[in-house]
Amino acid sequence: MKSIKTHIGVTISLLSLLMAIQFGFFVQRLMDSYEVVMKNEYSIVIAANRPLIINDVNLTEVQKLERIDSDSVLTRLKDKISNENLEKLKQNLPKFYNVKMTFFPSQNELNNIADKLKKIKGVTKVEIFAKAHDSIYKILILLKNIIAVFTFLIVILGVLLMIRQIKIWLLEHTRRIEVMELLGAPFFLKSARLYQLSFLDAILATILCICFYIFMPHFAFYINTMATIGIEISSIVLDEILILLGISLLTAFICVSITMISIGNKGAK
Fold first, then answer.
1. Which of 18, 66, 136, 221 is most deeply packed, by most CB within 10 A?
2. What domain range includes position 190?
3. How many CB atoms lie within 10 A of CB 179?
């Protein structure tokens, strides 16, 4: 019974650690996807006194240059001013363009891009909507920091739980290992049983974590949240599964090794 409780304790400790790590992976991919959405929706508006093409811009930060149609404005004024004045307005009206970025820039990067755009021949005005952009960018950074702190705290909790299980292992296996040591058993023979049990617990914890994230997209809160923000991403991907398995096995290996070294040091005294 005590052994079963120990296995459950180890599995839960590893599971909490893996859940926190995968949550960090998931949120990072979510934030990256949201940045792509913001990048696609955000644009700089420039005014020019001559027609421009993408080659005129020639900046690595710029993905696309789109002409803003001014015909709708002129159509609304058609009945309010004479044809002669309308034609003069049409000739003197600046050409407006949307400038799409290859990434969602920080405020400093945005200012640098604006300075480069202002140096382009014919550009008379550059509007970067600095206030709105800065607010969105700061919110993204804040969310990333909050998630990072939250994930770190859960990881610390998982590590503390693992340390607790190490102490339990020490109490349960010290006598057996000391006897084997007196009989001259090599290190890996003494610790083989502990490694075997811990690796089984690590694999079980990994499977439980993977199953949770695989089924998470079927939960109502997940469906509603993704629908609200308009982003579709996988809750877990193959690379993350392999990383979780590696972290789980490595953590189990380290914990068993610490246990065995602690017992060895105790025996040496």
1. 18
2. 2-37+135-268
3. 11
* Same domain, residue pair 145 and 226: yes
Q: Which pLDDT value is given to residue 1?
A: 47
Whole-number Å distance between alpha carbons of 217 and 212: 9
Buried b (16+ CB within 10 A) or exposed e, 228-238: eeeeeeebbee
Q: How many other β-carbons are positioned within 10 Å of the β-carbon of residue 124?
A: 12
Residues linked to residue 99 through DSSP beta bridges, in sequence order = 44, 65
In Å, how far are 7, 17, 162, 192, 195 from 188, measured between CA atoms? 21, 26, 21, 5, 9
Return d(Cα 30, Cα 184) in angstroms, integer.
54
**CA-CA distance, 216 to 135, in Å (whole number)?**
31
> Bigger pLDDT: 200 or 10?
200
Q: Which residue has the higher pLDDT, 267 or 54?
A: 54
Least confident stretch, 114-118, 200-204, 231-235: 231-235
The domain that holds 53 is classified in CATH as 3.30.70
Closest CA to 95 of 75, 63, 76, 121: 121
Lowest mean pLDDT among 44-53, 148-157, 160-169: 160-169
Residue 116 and residue 142 in one domain: no
